[in-house]
Design brief:
The complex is a heterodimer of chains A (about 850) and B (about 230). With about 850 residues, chain A is α+β, with helices and mostly antiparallel strands. Chain A is built from 30 helices and 21 strands. In chain A, helix 18 packs antiparallel against helix 25 and helix 18 packs antiparallel against helix 26 (about 715-745). Chain A is elongated, with a radius of gyration of 32 Å. Chain B is of the alpha/beta class and about 230 residues long. Chain B has one domain (about 35-60, about 80-225): Rossmann fold, CATH 3.40.50.300. The chains are: A alpha+beta (about 850), B alpha/beta (about 230).
């Protein structure tokens, strides 16, 4: 009890150091739980929406890019007697409010067919919304809470952007979700009658899919087989959960990468806690010695130190969870935006407090604190009473352990390298290897610090005189403190370097790729971007008009669609490309010259690098696609670099697409200017000819810049995490170095008494912290570069299959060293000021 | 009349303790001659250490004038006082106050390092001093591996290595047993008397006080000369 009181008093007696330790834990927990909340919120919102919309459907009948003919629904329902089926027309639109646009999924249903399939849409008659829904033009239903959020009431007319056109919707009533889960799923959903949806999306007579409820067991199997035999070529039946599962898998690597980056912040936080607790023990070596001398057992000392850690860990975790919840809301926005940019359209209205994510944050915070405090607690108990009193013994023991730590570090790094050379380990193996390398490297830092101090001492002495020499020596003689502080700093700074180099290299790669990929002068597409990667088709008459433009020397037509297969959706990009442009395509495997003829004829396709990586394909292999003529295997004539989609795409010529899919639509056109016609003039001519059509006409340079904007936006979340890790690192450095200097108050007071001026004192303290900063900054460089190499050649390759250029910009390295030195100098400022202001007489009076 | 090395003229000094003011000196005056051994006696907490802090320029009087070697300390800046202390004063503390992260030899060299005068000759002097205090064998040891008496001997060597004019010793034998205390005082006699430096020493011990040329006690916040118990000079 009394020991517990002593532990509590120790925590309270050093409020600043305790506060910094708590902040360190809190930041680590905040970052991890925020990323967790954001990931979970996005996944949950997406899966709930998918489940709610799918309802009780067990299977879905899906077709090619143009969907299914309405007659097929009649055939299935009436001719084949599948009563438990419902037609669905679905797409995305944006409600335009004064505060901005909000993306919604619109689902068009047949209210009379709904009851066996979906519960939220089966009560329309009872709710009295059936008539307005079916008779009023543009009538939609939405969730009451969503409407309230957008200040929309029943009967209001709301503007919407649908496929590049401004339309008017009318809110006919509210959806009544049967439970809370359905309410979350319906938050971003608008429901309309099938005919309204067809009219809005410009697909009269076509359905997106047909939902089916089949019985379980052999009866269901029999019905499924019967149904399959009745379907026309190009139409398939897929399990209802397959699509949601596939979409969830799509974002798995992305989410895993975020989680790993957040764990990096926690690792840095753990170093900080380890550092704080080690100081706490070292500072009280005299007290611990006394307690041991009066009969306190080792176990009691251990418990006391661990109780303190628990106190700090709990406080940090509670604060961290609070901050994590706030941060989680912002990260949810970034995660959602990235998923929208890269994968599929979804909307998360809020970040709910998910118990699992919060519990994980709690557990991580407290356990990480205890684990980090354990070595310090063991250190406090492992020495005999007299030895605990001796500071030099601690330092000596540390120095003796340096070679062993170094050896352990090298072993850990080798283990990490083994993880990298074992591809079957996947992303988790890659990150495990990365963490092993980081911790192994950190273990070798005290050795390097000792060497650096010895090497730099003469130079420091020459440059800064006695004070410089003292600073250099101080780093080595206080290895128990400086070693950990420097290691924490190296880990934090290197994380920044690694991520910067990776993102920088990726950016450069994408820029080079765009140079090769985007060859035309001007690009035309629908102005609507509510569908994310997928644009609505351009009006055929407009395509016809634009293709006859005299200023254009040539043009291409393209179409990007998602094809629903049994293994989930896959992206098909079709393009009519001039031969000379094709020859400049960035091939990774195969050659453009060898591939061009078969590609143009429609006898082969190209696949992107991630697609090849994920499906283990090489040129000469075949890729099987569901087409409107049934499943067809296409020979792969080349693998090209593509950084637009990490799930991969299949590229085919337009003629091949038209042969295999009943979809003549064009969603993108690119134009080459005639000689003497500038791209700007060509763009102006296209805009004139486009007239009032909602199209965007973009110059090559503008499109490249817009693509890079999306790229930068995608990495915004990485930037935020990197910044947070840096903040954790900064707090760590501050805490470590401050603790070190505060603990030396009496020593510094003696120096003042024997003649050190306040300026010199400042010099000693800041010289020491600056030296740590420089050494840490320099040591962070190789680790940072290794981290970047691992991120590029192991993690990204295993996650996405991309080849990236590796380029180390000196600016990143310089920036990292500067950050390190500035943080270290700042950390020295407070103790210097405090000591310069304190009378040496007072400091000398204080108990040792 | 011999020149006064230290002169306190109507010094006042008080400390605030919460909302109370604790007066240490009021109108206190004192002259200490060059080469003199002046010992301060008095009960605990009466201000003996404060007087040493004032003479060394670590602390400043609230009122009055304080001259050391013709320099008015009140008028010196913090930096000037520190430089003055560095060159002119050697300090020996009751609790030794060696720098724990410096070896014995480095602790002794520290004042020379600070003055930037660490010549080979002065290094030799440091080694000679260590030899004279009987610790040349322990030159590479860290302070906390030494006994209290050994630590104090190192502190004496550190206080004298730069040949200060004034040595201030705050109960240098207070933490030592009688025999070890005598050894340390012997060192003072051998090393300080030899250089002709002035010694101001705080003590509670009558036995120690016998070594003084003059004894001063603090009575009612003033410095009062007291007869010596006996001289061992």
């Amino acid at each position: 009890m009394m020991l517990g009181r002593a532990a509590l008093r120790n925590v309270l007696r050093h409020p600043w150091l305790t506060a910094l330790a708590v902040v360190g834990v809190a930041l680590g927990v905040a970052v991890v739980s925020a990323v967790d909340l954001a990931n979970a919120a996005a996944t949950r919102a997406f899966l709930l929406a998918a489940e709610t919309v799918a309802g009780r459907a067990t299977h879905q009948v899906v077709g090619g890019p143009a969907g299914l003919p309405e007659e097929l629904y009649r055939t299935i329902r009436i001719d084949r007697h599948f009563r438990a089926c419902a037609p669905v027309v679905t797409g995305h639109l944006q409600l335009v409010a004064p505060s901005g646009s909000t993306t919604f999924q619109l689902i068009g249903v047949d209210p009379f067919a709904e009851p066996p399939v979906r519960s939220f849409s089966s009560q329309f008659r009872q709710q009295g919304v059936l008539t307005p829904l079916m008779t009023r033009p543009g009538a939609v239903l939405m969730l009451r809470q969503t409407a309230a959020g957008l200040k929309i009431r029943v009967g209001d007319r709301v503007a919407a952007e649908v496929a590049g056109r401004r339309r008017e919707l009318s809110v006919a009533g509210f959806l009544e979700p049967p439970d809370e889960v359905a309410k979350v799923g319906l938050a971003s959903l608008l429901v309309a009658d099938v005919a309204t949806a067809q009219e809005l999306f410009g697909s009269p007579g076509r359905l997106s899919r047909i939902d089916l409820v089949l019985p379980e067991g052999s009866d269901g199997e029999r019905q499924l087989a019967e149904l399959r035999s009745a379907l026309p070529p190009g139409v398939t039946v897929v399990p209802a959960g397959a699509r949601a599962g596939a979409l969830d898998r799509m974002t798995r690597s992305f989410r895993l990468n975020l989680t790993a980056l957040s764990l990096l912040a926690l690792v840095v936080g753990m170093f900080l806690i380890y550092n704080t607790m080690t100081f706490s023990v070292i500072r009280r070596r005299r007290l611990i010695g006394l307690l041991r001398a009066v009969g306190v057992t080792r176990r009691e000392i251990f418990t006391q130190v661990m109780s303190e850690a628990l106190l700090i860990g709990t406080a940090g975790t509670v604060i961290g969870l609070g901050c994590g919840i706030l941060l989680g809301a912002e990260l949810t926005r970034l995660v959602t935006r990235t998923i929208n940019d890269l994968y599929f359209v979804m909307e998360v209205r809020n970040a709910p407090l998910l118990p699992a994510a919060l519990a994980k944050g709690c557990l991580l915070g407290v356990l990480a604190t205890l684990a980090a405090a354990c070595p310090a607690a063991l250190e406090a108990t492992s020495a005999p009473p007299r030895a605990v009193l001796s500071r030099s013994l601690i330092e000596e023991r540390r120095r003796r352990r340096v070679p062993l730590a170094c050896l352990g570090g090298f072993l850990l790094m080798s283990l990490g390298a083994a993880f990298f050379s074992y591809p079957a380990g996947g992303i988790v193996g890659g990150f495990a290897g990365l963490f092993a390398v980081i911790i192994g490297y950190a273990a070798t830092i005290p050795a390097v610090l000792l060497g650096a101090s010895r090497l730099l001492r003469p130079a420091m002495r020459r440059l800064f005189g006695v004070i410089g020499g003292m600073s250099a020596r101080g780093v080595a003689v206080s290895l128990s403190r400086t070693g950990v502080a420097t290691a924490a700093m190296v880990v934090a700074v290197s994380a920044g370097i690694g991520v910067s180099i990776m993102v920088g290299g990726f950016r450069l790669t994408v820029q080079h790729w765009l140079e090769n990929w985007l060859q035309a002068d001007v690009y035309v597409r629908s102005a609507d971007n509510g569908g994310g990667r997928y644009r609505p088709p351009l009006d055929p008459a407009l395509v016809e008009r634009l293709s006859r433009l005299p200023e254009a020397g040539g043009y291409t037509l393209s179409r990007r669609v998602r094809v629903e297969g049994e293994g989930g959706p896959m992206e098909v990009f079709s393009v009519s490309v001039p031969r000379e442009s094709f020859l400049r395509y960035p091939f990774k495997a195969g050659s453009p010259a060898a591939a061009v003829d078969s590609f143009q004829r429609g006898d082969s396709v190209l696949i992107s690098e991630p697609y090849a990586y994920r499906n283990h394909l090489r040129p000469g292999d075949r890729v099987t696609l569901p087409t409107d003529r049934g499943r067809r295997a296409f020979p792969v004539s080349g693998i090209i670099y593509d950084y637009g989609s990490d799930t991969g795409i299949v590229i085919m010529s337009r003629s091949c697409y038209l042969q295999n899919y009943r979809d003549r639509a064009v969603d993108g056109m690119s134009f080459y200017a005639r000689p003497q016609v500038t791209p700007a003039r060509l763009a102006a001519a296209l805009r004139r000819r486009g007239g009032s059509a909602a199209i965007s006409v973009i110059l090559n340079a503008e499109l490249k810049s817009a693509t890079m904007t999306v790229f930068d936006r995608t990495f915004a979340i990485t930037g935020v995490l990197r910044m947070l890790t840096t903040v954790v690192a900064f707090v760590g450095i501050l805490s470590a170095l401050m603790a070190m200097q505060v603990e030396r108050a009496r020593e510094l007071a003696v120096l003042r008494a024997v003649g050190l001026t306040p300026g010199q004192l400042w010099g000693v303290v800041c010289g020491e912290t600056a030296l740590i900063g420089v050494v840490a900054g320099l040591l962070a460089l190789p680790l940072g570069i290794v981290e970047a190499l691992v991120l590029v050649y192991v993690i990204n390759l295993r996650s996405f299959g991309w080849t990236m250029q590796f380029s180390v910009a000196p600016a990143y390295l310089l920036q990292a060293v500067l950050l390190s030195v500035v943080a270290a100098l700042l950390a020295g400022v407070y103790p210097s000021i405090a000591m310069a202001r304190t009378s040496p007489a007072d400091a000398l009076k204080e108990e040792e | 009349m011999p020149q006064a090395l230290v002169e306190l003229r109507s010094i006042a000094k008080s400390f605030s303790e919460g909302d109370r003011e604790r007066v240490v000196f009021r109108d206190a005056s004192l002259k200490i001659e060059a080469g003199e051994w002046l010992f301060l006696l008095g009960r605990s907490g009466c201000g003996k250490s404060t007087l040493l802090n004032l003479i060394s320029g670590i602390d400043l009087p609230d009122d009055g004038e304080l001259l050391v070697g013709q320099r008015l300390l009140n008028r010196l800046s913090e930096r000037e006082r520190t430089l003055f202390r560095r060159r002119e004063i050697g300090f020996v503390f009751q609790s030794f106050n060696l720098i724990p992260t410096l070896t014995v030899e480095e602790n002794v060299l520290l004042p020379l390092e600070l003055t930037g005068e660490l010549t080979p000759a002065l290094r030799g002097r440091a080694r000679e001093l260590l030899d004279r205090v009987g610790l040349s064998e322990r030159a590479a040891s860290f302070p906390d591996r030494l006994s209290g008496g050994e630590q104090q001997r190192v502190a004496v060597a550190r206080a004298l290595v730069h040949r200060p004019k004034l040595v201030l010793a705050d109960e240098p034998t207070g933490n030592l047993d009688a025999q070890t205390g005598r050894q340390v005082l012997d060192l003072f006699r051998q090393l300080v008397r030899g250089t002709g430096a002035t010694l101001v020493l705080v003590t509670h011990s009558d036995e120690v006080a016998r070594l003084a040329d003059r004894i001063v006690t603090i009575v009612d916040h003033r410095l009062v000369e007291t007869p010596r118990p006996g001289s061992a000079r």
